[in-house]
Amino acid sequence: MTSLGREPTDPGAERDPDARRQALDGARRVVVKVGSRLLAESPAARPAVLADDMARLRGEHGTEFIVVSSGAVALGNRALGVTRRPSELPALQAAAAIGQSKLLQHWEHAFAAHGLIIGQLLLTHDDIAERKRFLNARHTLQALLSLGAVPVINENDSVAVEEIKYGDNDLLAALVCNLVSADLLIVLTDVDGLHGDDHRRIPVIRDIDREAVPVATGSRGDGVGSGGMASKVQAAKAAARTGAATIVAPGRRPQVLAEALSGRDVGTLFLPEAARMSSRKHWIAYASKPAGRVVVDHGAHQALVERKRSLLPAGVIAVEGEFELGDVVLVATAAGKVFARGLAGYRAEDLRRIQGLHSADIAPTLGYKYLDAVMHRDDLVLL
After folding, report:
1. pLDDT tens figures, 7-26
2. Quick one: 334 and 248 in the same domain?
3. 96, 182, 241, 361: which one has the fewest Cβ atoms less than 10 Å from its Cβ?
4. Which range marks the domain in which residue 138 is found?
5. Does one domain contain both 32 and 129?
6. Could you tell me the pTM of the whole model?
């Protein structure tokens, strides 16, 4: 792999010339997310060009690709002659229902030109938030890859409610990285990367919270996509915790995938975290839907954050919501700051009875005891 020198407009590109090479070395399973605007402006040509790139890289290097494609709503609106993205959910869902088949046809024809078969998955957040359905989706994707098919994934916008408004599939792409244990996420968009306060492209991001979050902006609100750079930065952050790097790259650039994978200075590279989060903990942190909240005192907060301990009942001062054993719950300070998520070791009803007590009092109070902790360290993720 090679790395180009920095462009005059990119003052940080030479700061770490090996960053791209180190992050991309050995990237053999890649999730490619394609934004709505790119597909809306070229619904047939864009998939064809990208499929050419992916087929060539697959043949030359054995790279596996998983496509996360936006565009169903945009293509549906185009078929209906609607120029602005509707604000009413039924209209959005109708547009998605019309556009989804058209979107899939474009991808199917694009890969068929190279003798490749695609497999479609329509997902909602519920499919990923529920652990059993998450594992089912994971097994399906693994089977498709083992059969040599190219998975093409989209949110099931024709039936989803909150998903249709959120992230333009950016977060979904990051969660797919966890589903398939991807090495790299490439987010193709209509800009050339993340720009700093000086309006110049930032080539490499090492600390997402410090360097990227303050300068990321939301959706432009032009009626096509629903994402924006802020959602792409959050997706990069989620992917980073699985050990996957992310490149936000200009989707209109010729052979952009080949250039990105070769280590050239394309777009903005978000480096992964050194410590890779397990698939299970990543699901707890990002994919699952919390069923309630546990409020802890200052001592418990320190024990969880600084000493990496389990949460004991003595540190619990309030229990909010109704949840069952094994449900995901938020963990917050008395001031209301959520700092962790984890699997409940006891039902909310029982946890209220033992909150503030010592572990030795659990069995006498409840008549049974699963664990000394109400949330085990192995089931807890700090945010």
Report:
1. 334 444 445 557 777 778 77
2. no
3. 361
4. 19-277
5. yes
6. 0.80
